[in-house]
Amino acid sequence: MSDFSRETQLLYVGDQVGGVDHSPETLPIYQTTAFTSHSLEEALDKYEALARGEAYSYIRTSNPNRSALAHMMSFLEHGEASLICSAGMGAITSTLLALLKAGDHVVYSNCCYGESLEIMTDVFAGFNVEITAVNIDNLEEVQAAIRPNTKIVYTEVVANPLMRVADIDTLAKMAHEVGALLIVDNTFTTPYAIRPLDHGADIVINSLTKFLNGHSDACAGSVTSTKEMIDKLDPIIQHCGTPGDPFTSWLVARSLKTAELRLLRQMDNAAKLAKALAQHPCVEKVYHPSIPTFSGYETAKRLFECDSRMVAMMSIVINTEDYDKRNEFTKHLKIAHYAATLGGVRTTYQQPIYSSQAHMPDAERRKIGITPAMFRISVGIENADDLIADFTSALNAIQ
Ligand SMILES: Cc1ncc(COP(=O)(O)O)c(C=O)c1O
């Protein structure tokens, strides 16, 4: 190297650092676009090893941090293999693109995350894919919608903001009767509440941006399934340019190490908060599957281990639609704050009329129970009594 000019040498100085422990306590960030070879022979050997998943070549194709996170997601979701994407939406869109062709039919839950719905209605419908939206908790309606050319049944386990609970076992049987795949978005519930693959789902998707990362500092998504399915999806994800980047994968993998501690606390807090708010005179309705009067309660009891292991999301309907009162309520909240996301360690809220259901006409929203009085809450890891006190005193202030 010393034969070369200073500017050339500088590019290689620092490549090898003496005394580095090659068994680091945590996986370092492989923030590199490529992995080099020092001869053609080595490069060709690497291509062969790459096909076996034993080497790395180019950042979009594969990266050690992405592989590490993929292993963790497969482990958590009880799948054979996983792909890590740049966002939950990258995982959803690329998966659908890989599996659908003109003439196919999709049955999907009409209360899924808004942009998942838009992908179906605005993009895939334009590719001559037939789309039928259903109330996923009405199994007769789902059965009636399924046709011989149905290729995918798509749902979330518990969907936003009405917290509708999907009976995954029955949906899987219905989909499989016509040879369709059941795809489940597990973002809200996470593998700490349910592993949809164990209930018959074929593919499980997670937005890692939410609860699994939990620190509100990364955007990523995952797809988990059989090795055969993942091998089929991988080229499309590569072509779409949606694989996750090394730093984000590292951040999420780091967060996953504490996910169980966080999520069990968050889900338990949510059940406690739901119970307390259901008793407050200013709250007309609480949407959380642990509430016995809630429509999805029986299905939830079958799907989940217990009340405190269901979901850390809920919606409440307060007893006024008046803007000033709603504003007053939010001003009195000291812990919970408005945020355009969910799943973080700090409790946040949103109003569906300004976010997920903003584009729906008011009359349509009202038909399904979404009014200006509805608040969607993402419950964090705070002390449960503090949270209950915060919401109770803010509600008392508008009584
Ligand atoms: C249930 C659900 N799925 C998927 C997504 C999309 O995730 P991302 O923002 O990581 O693309 C979201 C986003 O809020 C979501 O709530």
UniProtKB/TrEMBL annotation:
GO terms for cellular component: cytoplasm. Keywords: Aminotransferase, Pyridoxal phosphate, Transferase. Belongs to the trans-sulfuration enzymes family. It catalyses: L-methionine + H2O = methanethiol + 2-oxobutanoate + NH4(+); L-homocysteine + H2O = 2-oxobutanoate + hydrogen sulfide + NH4(+) + H(+). GO terms for molecular function: homocysteine desulfhydrase activity; methionine gamma-lyase activity; pyridoxal phosphate binding; transaminase activity. This is homocysteine desulfhydrase. Pfam families: Cys_Met_Meta_PP. The modification N6-(pyridoxal phosphate)lysine is found at residue 210. Its EC number is 4.4.1.2. Its cofactor is pyridoxal 5'-phosphate.
